[in-house]
Every structure is written in C-alpha cells, then in structure tokens.
Give the backbone structure.
Amino acid sequence: MSTVLGLGPQEVGEVVSGLRPGAEDPLEAFARGVWSGLAEPGDGVAGAFVASFGAAEALRILQDGAPPSPRPELAEGFERWRPRLDADVARRAFRNATRLGVRLLLPGDAAWPSGVDDLGVHAPLALWCLGEEAAVMRLSRSIALVGARAATGYGEQVAADAAAGLCDRGFAILSGGAYGIDGTAHRSALASGGTTVAVLAGGLDRFYPSGHAQLLQRIAVEGAVLAELPCGFAPTRWRFLQRNRLIAAASRATVVLEAGARSGSLNTAGHAAALGRPLGAVPGSVYSGTSAGCHRLLREYDAVCVRDAADMAELAVGPDPAMTLDGLEPPGDPTERRVHDALSSRTRTVAEVARRAGLAVAETIGALGILALDGRAVETAEGGWRRAP
Amino acid sequence: MSTVLGLGPQEVGEVVSGLRPGAEDPLEAFARGVWSGLAEPGDGVAGAFVASFGAAEALRILQDGAPPSPRPELAEGFERWRPRLDADVARRAFRNATRLGVRLLLPGDAAWPSGVDDLGVHAPLALWCLGEEAAVMRLSRSIALVGARAATGYGEQVAADAAAGLCDRGFAILSGGAYGIDGTAHRSALASGGTTVAVLAGGLDRFYPSGHAQLLQRIAVEGAVLAELPCGFAPTRWRFLQRNRLIAAASRATVVLEAGARSGSLNTAGHAAALGRPLGAVPGSVYSGTSAGCHRLLREYDAVCVRDAADMAELAVGPDPAMTLDGLEPPGDPTERRVHDALSSRTRTVAEVARRAGLAVAETIGALGILALDGRAVETAEGGWRRAP
C-alpha cells in the first residue's frame, strides 16, 4: 500500500485508531473521513466517484491528478476537490476529533443512520459523531422537530410538549441544535429522559451556535451530536441547507413546529417531501408570522396538520388502531333526535309528538321507547310523553 | 280544478298573489309552500313524490289518503305527512308571510339558488325569502363562512377580516345568522357594503336567535334571509342540521373559521364534503378548543388550510394566475450562494474563494462576475475579491 496524502499505512492506522477502535480497513475509513472535507456535503459527483472506486482508491486517483474517465462532471469535480487536498488539514481534523472523543461513522456501521442512504449519491460519505452510538441507532425511530430560531412562546410550548410526549412514546428527537424550536425540542427531550440527537452544519470542534455550546455538550453526553464535515470546517449557508437534508433523511418523519414564510426549516421540510418522508406542520394563528411557514406547508406541500405528540407519532408510524376517528355527524340516531326535539317539559300525546317530529306514529313510538330506556324521555301517568328533566 | 286543503282556485290565487306576484300556476306554488311544512327538511321520500306528481297533485293524493304505489317508504311518508295536513296552519303560514313581505321561491325561479339542486331528492321543495332577490341570485358567487357560536376574539377577527376581504373580491357571504362567527361574518359583510344572506332553521316570522333579531332585520333589508320552513315553524335540532346542508349546497365553498371538536359547523362542513364542494378550515392555536374542529377538518376531511380572504377566494374559484407560489428553496443559484458564503470582508484570491466554496476556479470566476453585477461582491485593487459591504 502506497502513501495517501503523504501518510503511510502505519500512520493512517494510528490516525484512525482512536476514531474507529478495532475496525477493519483503516485506510478506507481514513479516506472517507478525508473525502468528507474535500467535497461539499451533497456533492453527487463525489458520491458516485467514491462509490465506484472506494474512498481510498478515489483519493489516490485524485492525488495523481487525472480523472479516470473523460466525463466532464468528473473533471469539474477534480477541479473542485484538488485545491482542498491538504495533508495538514486532514491530519489536524483527525487529531482534533480524536482529542474530543469523536467517532467516525461509515455506511454499513451498526450505528450508521441508514435513512440517509436514501439520499443516493448525495448521501454523506462519513459522519462524525460525538456521544452515544446507541442514541444514533435510535434514529430509526426518531422524529425530526424543527422550526424557527425566532420562536414565540406558543411555538416553544408546542415544541416542549411534543418532544416530551414523543419521548414518552419511545421516539428519539432529532433536530439541528439551533436557537428557538430546535433548542427547546432538544431540552425537553433531555428533561424527559428521552433520546435526542443534533446534527451540526460545521465540524464538531466548534459548537454552533456558540450560545448553545452547553446544551450541545449535554446532548453529546446523553445523546449524540453528528456532523458531516470534519473538525476545523466552519458552517456555511450551503452547509446548513445540506445539514437539513440529513435531518430529513435520518428521521422517520419531519415536523415543522413554527416557521416564518421563508424559514430554513421549510428547506428541511422540502427535503422530507422530496424523500417521501412523512411531513407534518403545526398550525397556529393566521396572524402569526412564525406560523406562516407551517401554513404554507399545509397548503402547498400537503403536509399533515399535527396538533400534538399523538398526531406526530401517528404521522411517523401510522394510526393507533385503538384510536377511532368519530364522525362529524352529531351522535345518535336521527329519528330519536327528531322525536327528542319534539318533546317538551310539558306532556304531549304520541300523535302530537309524531306530528311535531314529522314522523309516523309507529316510528315515534319506537323512538320514544329507546329515549325512555336512555332516560331522555318519560311516559307520564296520563299516557303522554315529556322530555326527561 | 278541485279544492286543495279546502281552498278553491280563487282563494289559492289570493293566498299566493302577495308571495309570487304575477307568477304562473299559483296552485303549484301554493302546494309547494304547503309541502315545505308537511315534510321535514331533507325528506327524500317527499322530494321524490313531489318530483313525480307535481306538488299540487301530490298534495291531492295525500289528502285522498291512499299512496299511489305500494312502496313501503311512501306509505311511511303518508303516515308522517298526513298528521300535519292542516288548512289553518297553511293559511296562517301564507298570511303571515304575506304580511311580512316574504317571497316564495321555487325551483326554476331566476332567484332560486341552483346549488341546492345538487341535493337531489333532498333539495328543498320551496324557499321562503325575506329581502332582496338580487342578493339571493348572488349566491352563485358566495362563500359560506361558518363557525362556533362561542367564538374567541381570534375567530371573530378572522371572520371579520375574511368577510370584508371576500366582499372586496365580489363574493357574497352566506351564513346561518347565529351568534359568534356567523354573526360577525354577516356584520362585517354589511359594514363592507357587501352582499350577505342568512339561512334560518325555522320560519321567517320568528328570527332566531332572538338576540340577532335586529341583525337579521338588517340582513333582510340589505341582503336576504332564507328559510326552508314556513312561518309558524320553530327551529329544532333536526332543522338546524338540515339548514346546514342548504348553506353548504347554496354556496361555492364552505369555510369553517373556528369550531369546537363537536361544533355544528362541522356538520355544515360534512355536507360540503359530501357534495364535493370546496371545504376550507382556518387554523389556530393547537391549545384552543375552538380551533380543534378546524384542525379535525384539516386532518380527517382533507379541508384546505385557508389563512385569509385571498386563500378563500382561491378555494372557491381556483388560483389567481397572477399569484405565484414561490418555492421552499432559498432564492438564488446554489453556486452563487456557495461563492458568496466563501467571501469575507477581507480580500481573498479567486483560488482561495474556490477552495472555500468547494468549487472549480472557472465556476467560481463565473459566479463572482454575477455577484459583482448584483453588487454582492467587489473585486479589489490587488485582484482579489471580498464581500460587498
């Protein structure tokens, strides 16, 4: 085996050992980690190239300089990736990750969130994970709760109630660690003793937003914090948008709790819709700007109107068979209702009741019998009927 | 021509003349008016019987006592209707109607709201109308605004804004004259100089609810008040439910603005859905009991989430082609966005910008050119680039 990025086999083994203890094929793991910093998240050309050749071999081809086929998109890819080929950056990323206790997750790992594989060539090449791999495994039964940074008290109340109720029902809560809805959902999940996972847009060595450093630290201890980019990589707008695709793909369903008409959480919702994942939106006042995005999702994206944790659980796993959706028709038999309407607190004859109800006498007598059994009508001594008091 | 309900042809002509001045076939009009009190609203057996024989002939057969065919439902119908055959009740109903200035509308009249014909045999046999027939004609471009009697300030604000906005767009407002949402919608329509029509569950001689007598009087002067039942007939629960079918059928679309989980306005919504009429629901707080019914409609009845008059107009007549639904994706080209992200307030070389953006140099230069044209990037004297201030 030749060197990769100037590192020989032994050095690669050392660099990877802390991030994937005991795992096979450290070179491939190292190369995938490097690729996660060479290609921007969601780079489908990189995804296809790595899928074709393997990460290590693809990296070697990139280093050698000539694309293996004359496809123009690959040549453009080489132009994008080559300026980032930097052994120092890679070494530093791995060293910092090791120092922080980060694990490097690869497709096929037990903890790999298999939902992201639905992204195809746009799937992440690797995921950097700080925290409990067990929490990441629970993403197979997770719901993404996302929403406005500038949440209102209403949105935060809904987020807190929803996260707690979903944790009670055995769901993990996935979100983006942002201020507002995201943070409230994470906090409520932690407070409920549930599982919560945050996905960041930059590397794990710099928690963003900085005001949530302590919260993210807690999530990393009790749940997990994931990143697609290596340590040393800052979040950018592009990376936030691509991070959103991971939140949509890794969870079973995405719920937008509160969002302005152009909120970033609508981007997460768009990814969920594109992936065919269930998408829910919490309604709110039509006068609230922070519900405008939710209402757009209900109108334009066929999002399901979800009111509480029960609705969100149903969104993710289908209706609870114990729950019945009782009808819009007022309860009871229409004939009985008409006969009951025709009764008064004063006694009326059966003929009078029948006339008032617009029913035949025989029908009226039948309905009066049932109403009497229900305690809603009383037969009087003189043979008439009145409404039960 | 023999007598009907003891009235000879001349007396029938006199009884009907004030209600349908100059109209042909007063006997048929009289008989339809009588039938509207013999059969409870929505009685399909009566509808089919009158459709088969004409109202006058059907009335004569009923008087004579023997159903014309051995169908059991008709025999049961005869048992329902015969106890109500009362010349005094009919004469009084017509006399009171004449005294109040009521018109009797029949199917085929110019002012007949043709939407109700979609109810088939359950269509009303006649409609009693107090007010402007021109207002009734505008029901072909009306929207039903219905909702909770116990409306909140939020619901009333939405109702007032919606009714005013719809009147501005040339829609008439149809509702049930009840307290809460109904009354607010009517009032706002009147205040906007728009057209509004109320449908009552009982006869027009007794406005219900009595606290809305003055409002209904104003509606009768500036718009119209309709009833399926003749004067002298009280509203009953059954009649309220059947009144709701008329509101759904006579309008182009039904919108529920605020409703408890078991509100009567959900019954109107159910009729609209059954008729295939567009159905809208206004969202609200998930913690508000008076929005629970609206949220049920969104979840269980595929109601459209409507936020304002524009949405309701679109619900009724389709989208305004001038309106575009711009996307959930953030605006702008993704490459430009990535290049812009990679700029800083300090000068960077093109190569540096390309590396940060994860793009090829050629792509980066192209995007920088466009950003410069948009005034979002600035080429510096030393040949580098920085973000526009």
Summary: Chain A touches chain B through 64 residues (CB under 8 Å). The radius of gyration of chain A is 30 Å. Confidence is low (pLDDT under 50) at residues 322-330 of chain A. The first strand of chain A starts at residue 103 and ends at 105.
